[in-house]
Design the sequence.
């Protein structure tokens, strides 16, 4: 069993569960090291204010075996940052597994590496994946070759368990699931646009409209650079 | 609608998802403020190394409306710390809602406030609740008066959504669930000792035996002080 270097990217305005969900799982893989990389050593502030410290600078990362990319509103700025984008592209090309959660898939898409691949992302940004040449699949976890993409926010748990099983076997993944008592019982059935009350989906889309419009502009600008 | 001051306690060797799961939900309640409180302003290091910054010192907290207490191996030391214990007791007495995740229930139990109450905690420590005079209930989320206790780690999402509905109504909770795409699809059915493979449960219990023995000693020592 070869040692695994696992690394997550962080940036301001990430959605912290995109990072912390997978951390709970992947930091428990046998014979592995897990570190958070960022452009500066300042704490990254999540969309709602939670502050998380990086472990090292981007340029200090070895070639990672597993690259993990979270999402959140900060993805728009990260996509437009050539230093971050080039780091993601280079690490993703060399890694044996690349794992995105939520709109982290858009950041990966911005490198051009999802062209022709099946992928998923947060439901509200799902229609943007084809702008990067990816096939948008409405599933919670999508695997295409070495790329594992998970849907919105909490889907990172499911994606990380899937990846844990792929990297270290089913029993390891089941043991982590048992430890973290992952036997979810949501009190409502409101986790997707298909199951949530229609009025709520409409008001949520309306509330996100300007964010999504801005994001789509950012996505089109980056995509134009390589198409 | 009265403004809600929500506060989470952190300490070294917490299990970070006990904090970050509820944060994802409770930081999105309308007309509320959410802050992390700690004994010092140093970053708290989670059991697996994730470093999170507190927002303020314990003594800077106003009387909180909602007190949130995470768990993790660090609970043993926190229970034995009179400053932390007294802060939890005082805040819990004045709060309108007290929410624990995982072994955070033991820290709350150590204040004596769970005596005669129904409660839950991580499956491996479940048998310790009665030492504090609580009735241990094998459910994912247990509500008894103003106390909401959730089982291990990831149950904090379910507990927080339950609490969100209680504090701000069902539609708010459903909207947060939709935003975070909480439509869990665990790839295995291994999240409880009842559903996981028996051999895995046995090996997990064996691996945790010394931790649990140490914890039970800590629990009995604290309980002896008030019984």
Sequence:
């Amino acid at each position: 069993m070869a040692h695994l270097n696992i690394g997550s990217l962080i940036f301001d305005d990430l959605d912290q569960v995109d990072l912390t969900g997978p951390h709970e799982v992947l930091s428990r893989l046998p014979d592995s090291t897990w570190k958070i990389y960022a452009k500066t050593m300042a704490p990254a502030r999540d969309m709602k204010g939670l502050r998380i410290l990086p472990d090292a600078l981007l340029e200090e990362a070895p070639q990672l075996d597993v690259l993990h990319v979270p999402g959140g509103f900060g993805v728009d700025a990260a996509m437009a940052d050539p230093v971050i984008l080039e780091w993601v592209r280079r690490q993703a090309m060399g890694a044996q597994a690349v794992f995105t959660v939520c709109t982290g898939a858009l950041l990966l898409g911005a490198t051009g590496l999802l062209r022709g691949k099946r992928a998923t992302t947060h439901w509200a940004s799902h229609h943007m994946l084809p702008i990067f040449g990816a096939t948008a699949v409405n599933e919670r976890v999508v695997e295409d070759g070495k790329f594992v993409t998970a849907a919105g926010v909490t889907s990172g748990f499911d994606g990380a368990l899937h990846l844990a099983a792929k990297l270290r076997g089913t029993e390891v993944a089941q043991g982590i699931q048992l430890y973290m008592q992952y036997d979810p019982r949501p009190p409502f059935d409101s986790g997707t646009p298909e199951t949530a009350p229609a009025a709520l989906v409409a008001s949520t889309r309306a509330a996100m409209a300007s964010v999504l419009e801005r994001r789509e502009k950012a996505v089109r600008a980056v995509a134009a650079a390589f198409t």
Chain A is about 40% helix and 20% strand.
